[in-house]
Amino acid sequence: MGFSLTAGNILAQKSPPVSNLRVSNLIEFDTTEGESLLMESKSKKDFFPLTMHFVTQDNLAYCGVASIVMVLNSLKIAAPETPEYRRYKIFTQENFFSNPKTQQVISSEKVARGGMNLQQLGGLLASYDGVKAQVYHASDSSLAEFRKLAVANLQQSDNYVLVNYLRKEIGQETGGHISPLAAYNEATDRFLIMDVSRYKYPPVWVKSAELYQAMNTNDSSSGKTRGFVLVGR
Description:
The chain is of the alpha+beta class and about 230 residues long. About 35% of the residues lie in helices and about 20% in strands. It is globular.
């Protein structure tokens, strides 16, 4: 019961009453079953750091920025100054693009208008010193490789997995989306997506095959498939 009163409630407290958006193939984290899947998981090293640094995306196109901010703060990468917090330094969605190197990848204005693709996601992460980002397009990978790499990552500290997928392929509404993975449940072969659009969806457990299928979809902005990024120091 101690668990459900801490992490479970922290993640569930902002979930909206959007039952019309929920689908049967997904298991929401803010349920008894969803919490049990985490308790049973042997691959959840990323869950608590991401929970500590969780943010909801600032606008409809900032899913990638919100995901990157969570990961950079979890990795304890040197952050720029934040005037609103005075002498304290932390990555926010407002100061993320203050690094001139990010502008060489894509501008904040373009992201605000149309989001980012997988290659840009990796480039923005790598634009910060001390960050290593490995980009995997789903068409160049496989379900088995994705599962192997993602699970190994979730069993280790100080590295993270960001997924770029098409929502409708897992039964959710609208188009492409980016969020971190927080855990993997071995018994059910499901990954926990720490969805950054908390105004719309809670974190959800999705079958690995369905998530891979959602990543193996074409992104018109790049002409390539979506996929995943492994991030570490």
